[in-house]
Amino acid sequence: MKASARQGWLLLLPALVMLVALFYLPQLLMFVVSLGRRSAYGTVVQDVSAGNYARAFEPLYLMVLGRSLVLATATTVLCLLIGYPVAWWLARRVAPKWRNALLVLVILPFWTSFLVRMYAWIVLLRSDGVVNAGLVAIGLPQVELLYNDFAVLLGQVYGELPFMMIPLYLSLEKLDPGLLEAAADLGAGFRESFRRVVVPQTMPGIVAGCVLVFIPSLGAYLAPDLLGGGRTAYIGNLIQSQFVVARDMPFGAALSFVLSLVVGLLLLLLRRSLQSAQSV
Questions:
Q1: What whole-number distance in Å separates Cα of residue 40 and Cα of residue 22?
Q2: Tell me, what's the pLDDT at 156?
Q3: Do residues 32 and 44 make contact, with C-beta atoms less than 8 angstroms apart?
Q4: pTM of the predicted model as reported, rounded to 2 decimal places
């Protein structure tokens, strides 16, 4: 092996060690636990069986997984629709001297615990909260805003929006203005320029933002638990309840492994679709 190749592997070694220790080994342990069964005392009995996986694919649990996929998709789409115009405004319309200050406002929520922010939404949305108090003050009836799917989606979009905006902003900031000027010189309007120039050039940011939003949203359990009141089951809450409440760790591990496989399959399909689009 050449010295440069050895040096490259040595530089890569810390990342490989972390990947194996923090991802592959936990996945392997989770798979081993998923093959066992729960004892009468809530411990794991290592009987090699696929019964937990057969149970995970029952219609009830597939419906929960489908509901989680819908939530993750809706969160991703809304974050993209909200984040793209804001990122465009920050990157192309705001004066450079103000951009850093506004970017700090974008990442400011990360300085506070996500749990605290969810409780803040509870204060805003509850029946005697700020929003309903404002509605009553202007003569409108109260609206049930908490403990439903709307509240869950609102909390997810609020929590994940910065993860969409940052990659979009970085892609839009690097966009060459000369490309837009060339498109305008060729007679393209804003819509045509946006569709044929801006979107393809910022596709890496779009993909990165969608991945960063979709994956955490698929396994979300805090917003559904607090803002949804636990009334609707999502896959993250189901897994958490199997480990903490039901003490059925093998089934919880099987659900977690199935969720990991679903995420991996979706990422593989995304990669192939991007490769097909680039080859056209």
A1: 31
A2: 96
A3: no
A4: 0.90
